[in-house]
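pls design
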């Protein structure tokens, strides 16, 4: 091992008794009680020296190779140090690297021990995401997915851009009349030319032939199609995603001024869409507040659309990179943009459900 401080970490102070590090991704200060040799080892760990070379320079006969290994293993576990393995780290093309420079620093704070921020970025670059529906949610999530460096996006929508879309979707006035998928493809090619964008001007229908052609190509499917309803399109996509065991995110819907964030679904390994839908219906029976809200022609507010995309985007990165389990797994969330409050309710997998348990 050639230990080096991770990109997101700054060494604030090192003395013969204490070492303090600032972790920028969560604004954390971590403090360690050390001895004089520990402090010197930290200053010697520049990514070019091996543990044995550090040990030689310490000139401390009471410290063994096992001691120094354990010392840096602990700091690696806490994501302070990593192994400098520049020879086998993923390489990116210069424009991609420059565009995502600060994200690489951020991802360094998320990478588990043994991985680097570059490894997580490489997972994003190698990923394919299928976005069904390119309206409010879909257009913003497509832009954010390309923005974080997803390598390949397949976007599907059968609508054309209308003037009424411009208030909350990523389209321009001179694109009115164009197919949304082509207008979005044009925009994404300018924003992130390294992302391949494939546009399909198709309509999502139950049992459509293309479902079994496109879904196996994807590492993740995001449903933003709300015709005939979000519930129905998510059920159709869930069944196809389940067949191919491809993760699915149903990217929200509106309930009055609140925005619901349905769960991220790992088919066969988490609460399934039918169980989630059953849970939702049990809470919105006839006469209930939620039922009345669902029947209102609810208003839509651009900040709610962008907030939803921003809240879902980290789960998209979690699914594609696997650095930790998705945050919206086995739960239902509601974000109220007027009060900035996020409510999360657990919706556990049903042990008697064949979809939740993977027996279907
Ligand atoms: Zn289920």
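designed seq:
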């Amino acid at each position: 091992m050639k230990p080096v401080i991770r990109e997101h970490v700054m060494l604030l102070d090192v003395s013969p008794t204490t070492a303090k590090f600032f972790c920028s991704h969560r604004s954390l200060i971590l403090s360690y009680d050390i001895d004089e040799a520990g402090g010197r080892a930290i200053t010697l760990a520049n990514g070019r020296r091996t543990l044995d070379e550090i040990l030689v320079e310490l000139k401390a006969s009471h410290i063994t190779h096992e001691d120094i290994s354990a010392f840096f293993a602990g700091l690696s576990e806490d994501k302070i140090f990593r192994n400098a393995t520049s020879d086998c780290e993923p390489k990116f093309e210069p424009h991609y690297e420059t565009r995502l420079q600060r994200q690489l620093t951020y991802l360094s704070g998320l990478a588990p021990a043994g991985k680097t921020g570059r490894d997580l970025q490489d997972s994003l670059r190698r990923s394919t995401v299928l976005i069904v529906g390119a309206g409010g949610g879909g257009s913003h999530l497509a832009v954010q997915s390309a923005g974080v460096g997803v390598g390949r996006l397949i976007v599907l929508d059968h609508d054309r851009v209308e003037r009424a879309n411009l208030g909350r979707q990523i389209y321009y006035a001179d694109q009115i009349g164009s197919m949304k998928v082509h207008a979005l493809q044009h925009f994404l090619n300018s924003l992130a030319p390294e992302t391949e964008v494939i546009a399909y001007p198709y309509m999502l229908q139950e049992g459509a032939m293309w479902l079994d052609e496109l879904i196996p190509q994807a590492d993740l499917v995001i449903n933003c199609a709300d015709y005939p309803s979000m519930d129905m399109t998510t059920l159709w996509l869930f069944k196809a995603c389940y067949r191919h065991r491809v993760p699915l995110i149903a990217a929200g819907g509106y309930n009055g001024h609140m925005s619901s964030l349905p769960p991220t679904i790992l088919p066969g390994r988490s609460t399934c869409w039918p169980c989630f839908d059953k849970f939702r219906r049990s809470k919105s029976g006839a006469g209930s507040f939620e039922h009345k809200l669902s029947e209102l022609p609810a208003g839509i507010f651009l900040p709610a659309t962008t907030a939803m995309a921003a809240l879902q985007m980290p789960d998209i990165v979690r699914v594609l990179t696997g650095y930790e389990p998705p945050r919206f797994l086995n739960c239902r969330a509601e974000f109220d943009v007027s009060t900035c409050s996020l409510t999360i309710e657990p919706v556990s997998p049903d042990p008697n459900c064949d979809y939740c348990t993977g027996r279907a």
